[in-house]
Specification:
Layout: E1 12-17, E2 21-28, E3 31-34, E4 44-45, E5 48-49, E6 58-59, H1 61-66, E7 74-75, H2 90-93, E8 100-102, E9 108-112, E10 115-117, H3 119-138, E11 144-149, H4 155-167, E12 171-177, H5 178-185, E13 195-202, E14 207-216, E15 224-234, H6 239-257, H7 266-282, E16 288-295, E17 298-305, H8 306-331, E18 340-344, H9 351-361, H10 374-386, E19 393-395, E20 403-406, E21 412-416, E22 424-430, E23 440-446, E24 456-463, E25 476-482, E26 488-494, E27 500-505, H11 513-557, H12 563-585, H13 592-618
Parallel strand pairs: 1-11, 11-12, 13-18, 15-19
Antiparallel strand pairs: 1-2, 2-3, 2-4, 5-6, 5-7, 8-9, 9-10, 13-14, 14-15, 16-17, 20-21, 20-23, 22-25, 23-24, 25-26, 26-27
Helix pairs in contact: 3-4, 5-10, 6-7, 6-8, 8-9, 11-12, 11-13, 12-13
The structure holds adenosine-5'-diphosphate (ADP) and magnesium ion.
The site of adenosine-5'-diphosphate has 20 residues, from α6 and α7.
Length: 630
Amino acid sequence: MTDRRSTADDPIVGIDLGTTNSLVAYCDEAGPRILRDESGRTLLPSIARLGGGAEPAVVGHLARESAGRDPERTVHSIKRLMGRSLEDVRREVDRLPYPVVAGPRGLACVRDGTAIRTPQEISALYLRRLREIAERSLGRPVHRAVVTVPAYFDDAQRQATRDAGRLAGLEVVRIVNEPTAASLAYGLGRASAGGTIAVYDLGGGTFDVSILRIVEGATDGDEAIFQVLATAGDTHLGGDDLDAAIAAAITARIDRGRAEFHADSILARQRLRLASEAAKIALSAAESTLVEVDLPSGRIAEVLTRAELEAIARPLVARTIEHCRRSARDAGIEPREVDAAVLVGGSTRIPLVRREVEQFFGRAPYVALDPDEVVALGAAVQAAVIAGRRADLLLLDVVPLSLGLETAGGGVAKLVVRNSTIPARATEQFSTQVDGQRHVRLHVVQGERELVSDCRSLATFELRDLPPMPAGIPRIEVEFLVDANGVLGVAAVEARTGIRAAVQVVPSYGLTAEEVARIERESLAHAREDMRRHRVIDLRVNAALDAKWTGEALGRVRDRLEPAYVASLEERLAEVRRFVDLATREVDGVDADAFGAARDALNRASMRLHEVAIAESLRGSPGPGPGPGA
Ligand code: ADP
Ligand code: MG
């Protein structure tokens, strides 16, 4: 396989996958530019109207237009759910008009008719649309992208973003923090003597402030390094919150005078939210405006002035300034020492925001670029650097290859994904696969491939002398910590007993650029096959457990079930066991889809069995209990 990096026919685009709006940009010799859709629009609303399984989803402007009519099917702010469990996002869920439910592993998902959609799938709808826009605009296929995320995104959220790219047919060659992208867009650091920059990003869903230092390259005169000195922010603070606060204020006002109006229907709430946002945007230019909502019970038209808006917005803006103060302190600088304050995000068009930022940093902020576009433009610049077209900029704050642990069956669980910014910290829970297992061996690996045998082994260590417990019961929490020097520490603790073990490894930053490139290329070339094999291995492990439990339950309550049901269940069980055997002998020949279908069929069929088995054990039969017996 040839090195795809050098071919101009395989462009890398830059994508700002926003909570509210998403954009795609490309950087060539003429510099970065936003790519436009057929109608010349730059912003793609990050909104999807789901089709309930019957029709395809509608994405972007069309979906946004229907939001007021069809709020329960119209998904917005999905970025807030990316890589989160339902527990993590309880607070948001109450505000979202569409149904959010627990999906696999408790992940927050969206119910779409009878189907469940993961946030990754929904984000992939936007990414696929952006990819289309880019392909049409550039006139060639697009397979690779640099995608930005808030600096506060943790590992799970970053990984979810990568997975969304994969679902959209895009290899995410790098995840870049939004503030870093913004400073790249301004070309800060090029032909300058270095300096300190504050990036203030107030979007729809998140607020971030980062203090960056640009250092001239030590040897090569024109090579600049972007160093993140400090970041602060709030993943629950943005224009959406302001819309909600305006809506609440209007509701309070109307409720006093008009008893027939109650903003408690989903439709009314959604329309009021949209009207509040429109009024807010109007007030960035005008001194007063109308909040207008059409409802079945009548029409609402309330005057809102800029002074009133500012009274509502002031506490939110004050919170952002508090974060600015903290990040300056963390960076060890006085606010007035920053050489530039860059404004990013649609909400920085609000005059109050500009005034407060100017006052805090003691200088007029940078606003030459459209605050909506800055991040995507910077992502495109970073893409050009990766493509080798811009050798004058370099980002040095990332983990070059993914770090992970071997899982049952020879798969790899990536904890710290490639290009995570350092210092990086990630935790994950594991358990045992065998009843009564006393020792757990942990194998730390590095690389992009899905199978341990294809990755580089860094270290192994053991958690020893656990008390015997049934498989799946021990809670082994593993923490990866990459410190600022690139040293990886791995610690594992069994939560119940407190038994712990740890190891220090120096990840191979000693790898040559060539080796890193080769590993990347291989992972690209093998990605599809790796994914299939990984799936087969996952299926093998999980289906074996399903078969074990089903077999045990069947053994206990067989005589309480109709013979025909037992026969069909046994047939499905045999089919799953056949696949497990096959996959144990040889991963390569197994049809993952057929295996998955057989496992699903068994699990559907065994639902009744498990109900009967549970009812039986509740009746107090002295069986071996819920866990598998020794
Ligand atoms: P995100 O990064 O979260 O996708 P954006 O940077 O696109 O968000 O900003 C979207 C937010 O900016 C929305 O809350 C929107 O209402 C707000 N916004 C856009 N234009 C203006 C404006 N002129 N005045 C005030 N707020 C605005
Ligand atoms: Mg943004």
